[in-house]
Amino acid sequence: MSSLYKPFSVSDGPCKDATWRGGCKSQQHPAAMSSPLPQPLQPPSASLGALAGAFTPVHSMCAGKRRFAAGAAAAPGGRKITHPGKAILAGGIAGGIEICITFPTEYVKTQLQLDERANPPRYRGIGDCVKLTVQDHGLRGLYRGLSSLLYGSIPKSAIRFGTFELLSNPMRDDTGRLDNTRSLLCGLGAGIAEAVLVVCPMETLKVKLIHDQCSLHPRYRGFFHGVREIVRDQGVRGTYQGLTATLLKQGSNQAIRFYVMNLLRNWYKGDDPTREMHPLVTATFGATAGAASVFGNTPLDVVKTRMQGLEAHRYKNTLDCAFQILKNEGPQAFYKGTVPRLGRVCLDVAIVFVLYEEVVKLLNRVWQTD
Question: By the number of CB atoms within 10 A of the CB, which of 164, 248, 314, 361 ranks highest?
Answer without folding.
Answer: 164
